[in-house]
Amino acid sequence: PSLVPAGVLRGHRRGVWSVAFSPTDRVVATASGDRTVRLWTVADCVCVRTLEGHTSSVLRVAFATAGTQLLSAGSDGLMKLWDVATGECALTEEAHDDKAWALATGDDGGRFVATGAGDGTLALWEDATDAAAEEAQSKERDALVAEQAMANAAYANDYGTAVDLALKLERPGKLRELLGELVGRGDEGARILHEVARTLGSHERLGTLLRYIRDWNTNARFCHIAQAALKAVVEVRAPEDIMTVPGAPDLLAGIAAYTERHLRRMALLVQRSHLVDYTLRRLGQVDAGELQDAADGEDDEDDGVVVFDNKGNVVRGVDPLAGDQSVAAAKKRRKREKKRKRPGAGVTYGAFDSVAD
Predict the structure, then answer these.
(1) What stretches of residues are WD repeats (predicted)?
(2) What is the distance between the alpha carbons of residues 241 and 256, in angstroms, rounded to a whole number?
(3) Do 115 and 150 fall into the same domain?
(4) pLDDT digits (tens, 9 = 90+) for 236-261
(5) How many helices (H) and strands (E) does the chain have?
(6) In degrees, to the nearest 5, what angle opens at C-alpha 350 toward C-alphas 345 and 351?
(7) What is the pTM of this model?
(8) What CA–CA distance (Å, rounded) separates 231 from 253?
(9) Which residue, among 324, 254, 194, 64, has the nearest Cα to 73 in the 3D structure?
């Protein structure tokens, strides 16, 4: 028998340390001191893919899993698993502390791999792809079962179970929806929310809830849900219990910062609502029944509420246009203004004059 040259493969910039043929395709793989692995077609000797990732010379290559994957080992002590079709590195293992001089796959399709290094160690590896896929499928099945159980619990108004499952599955959107339903149910919802906070199974669950509260509290759309949940937690859980949650100081600091912002915003909204209420009353838009209720109610002028009748007279509170004057002084001032007003000169609303043309 004799051998004749079929072609020369050119492309590596340093010495070639290892060559391996694919068991299924007319493809050959080469490992070089230029830190690359190259794939070549046997028919025309063309490089079809260059695999880069090793930090030093690549010393050994071997095909695995029916030629669909490629293993490489280098002087950096790393073993890499490559996808032949895409050229992507699927796995990197720190196989040895010294140069990996040897690499071999078993006859069982590459389920077992052995590597040897310059420090005299031999490592045996087992392909756990199928086991990992089976474990992932099992987790997915368990998650689907838990999702259905959570939906059933929510439908049956078993909020304790539904909230616990939402925390376990890390479903912040669903948890926010459940807590929003409780907030909308008033006192009954608050009672259920307190019971849910009391029966949280572990500090891990409590920590997850506090993280979600912190995130919701940064959004004005969901801050009322966050505040209701936080109120339930601090009312039924002991402070030392809350502080044992990992990262509790940072979580509470983040919640407090945005809570102060919401407090200032709500105070401003309340002030603006008084202005609208005052304007409506000055324009005579208030209902007579409301005026009667105000007149028959508590005579507390320090609550910041001012009530006018449809003639502009103060029946409750302190006139904001009269400064610190009493109600009686405000009435006298308004009587003097009426005497000075001439027909056709204008119509007065509070402190603003609209002059007729």
Answers:
(1) 9-50, 51-92, 93-126
(2) 18
(3) no
(4) 888 888 888 888 889 889 999 888 88
(5) 10, 15
(6) 75
(7) 0.46
(8) 15
(9) 64
